[in-house]
User: What shape does this take?
Amino acid sequence: MSLDGEREVLRVEDLRVVYETSAGPVRAVDGVSFSLRAGERMGLIGESGSGKTTLGTAIVRLHRPPARIESGRITVDGRDFLDADERAMRQLRMRELALIPQAAMNSLNPVMRIGDQVADGILAHEGKLPRRDIAERVARALAQVGLPASVAERYPHQLSGGQRQRAAMAIATALQPKIIVADEPTSALDVVVQRQVMFTLGRLQAGLHAAVLLIGHDMGLVAQFADTIGVLYAGRLVEQGPVDDILDTPRHPYTRLLIDSLPSLDDKKPLRGIPGLPPSLLNLPPGCPFAPRCPFAFERCRVETPMLQPVGARQLAACHLYPEHSELPPLPSDAELPEVPAVHAEVEAIAP
Amino acid sequence: MTPLLEVRHASKIYGGSLLGKRDTTVALEDLSYSIADGEPSMTAIAGESGSGKTTLAMLMLGFLKPTSGQVFYRGRDVASMSSTERRQFRREVQPIFQDPYEAFNPFYRVDHVLETPLQRFGLARSRSEARGQIAEALERVGLRPNETLGRFPHQLSGGQRQRVGVARALLCRPKVIVADEPVSMVDASLRATILASLQVLNRDLGISIIYITHDLTTAYQICDNIVVLYLGKVAEVGTVERVIRTPRHPYTQLLVASIPVADRRRRWGEDAAGDSDATTHAHAGRTGCPFAPRCPAVMPMCHDSPPPLFMPDGQRAAACFLYRDAPVLPTADVAAVWEREVA
Assistant: This one.
């Protein structure tokens, strides 16, 4: 689909989110900028500890201490969202932008009927409504995610996993937001149900002409769903662009190795992982955070942090290979990959 | 020849009580499967939640007793083994667990988890021999001993912990490793390394691997054979080439079509599957094919009796009446599907 001429609904500029820990600040989101246009489906790919969930929750300002937005700007439909006071922010949230949190299906209240849980959000925003109007709005929210109105009378335990996930999506989107942040919306679901839920999200998005930020670690899922991809590594966007371009010609070495590590259904090939581990976000050394694992790293990579720059017609990559190179050189064989210390820094111990 | 490990007509039913009729769940229904001795293989047991794949793994490991049927190791019923036989079984059939975050005691250094099996099974004659074996096992799975030993579990990443788990299993000098979703909690860039280490154990050390998974893509990449389970019964079984590349059972077809492939030329088709999932249909006392309520190709006969395993083409069998003109798999043991072809 073409997004040309679509209005920009979300702009994130140089966002920095820090976890204040006893060991020092952990820079989970380190200067991330991107924007979403109406109707755009952007996939945000990252491995554990890359900051993807922190970024998702910070965008809707649902991050919790010790996480703190240090600096940056978030603009929702032209309005400054970070400077909005609590009341204004609550009005924007759900109505303008909604979060479908990780494991949303487990966030349902087990002793409350689904309908009442959907109605909660509507009432909080619109005040008292006649009973019939509420029922109508609840039914519409459920219909948006492909659930029959009768589900309103059910309790969560009476629903299947896929239905619970849809119910959670109905709660998040009951006010028909323009921006939906979906954090691993299918992580606990089986593959068949996963496909169904992603179709549901797609129809919901199309019906509302909303922009979706799909956060996840599964390149396949993003490839199936999204129009554009952002690749997050150590809290920074290292590559960005249309899905087709990135899958065909990844420009950042990390993206390339990540795609290469995916098992294929077409031919059996030796499995190849990325040597080494993501860096600790505590006291990240200067230079490119991927340099210690990168087969192309040279001196400059260890001293100067690369900025996102245009590479090719439609991609951005944060890599010092550009602009000297026009594309990524061929990968060295496994034997030539650099030796990387296997010791893991305490990323996971600190991450929430 | 006596199989190394054999599951014979095993069923596992959970729930129910002596008083009254509480709900029961049939987790596994009359499954027979064997691992040949002296022919190290890599077999995937695949299915969604509720398929019975973990129950089957627990039976093979002797962690669960079948409600009916038996599990044999080297021809001996696991339920009635002598203590010496049980010791050998426990050592030679090793588990690798799903969650590398929960499989370790956080108060012990990782050395402890590696030393324990050597002590318990008396596999090292001295401390220095034990250290040598541990170092070798760690290197086999791609870890550097000096960077791994002496650390606490929380100082290692999930991927490293999972490889320590593989090294621990390896130290027991097993014949069979049952790995239950070993990479489902590990990041994509590290998965390949762990799976490759399982392949090394199979090829270089002759260990048979049972790979329990919901992920058909990794099953295709590392395994020779696959058993697809649906609600406790075998839906399709055969070589991965047959079953995953050209699935015959409508359920396997649905599974393969639902894989999110990172390839834009292979986009998901429209929502063909019924709007339901397996757990909605799990119940005891069904008569026909367990997949019938969701099946796009369902026929009246599917509700009457469960389909046997038909063999529409070589090295595969599918429990589906669509192939009722094909010969029926002559034995209960589903491993016969690929073993017969070898013979």
Q: What stands out?
A: DSSP finds ten helices and twelve strands in chain A. Residues 250-350 of chain A form one domain. The two ends of chain A are 37 Å apart (CA to CA). Chain A touches chain B through 50 residues (CB under 8 Å).
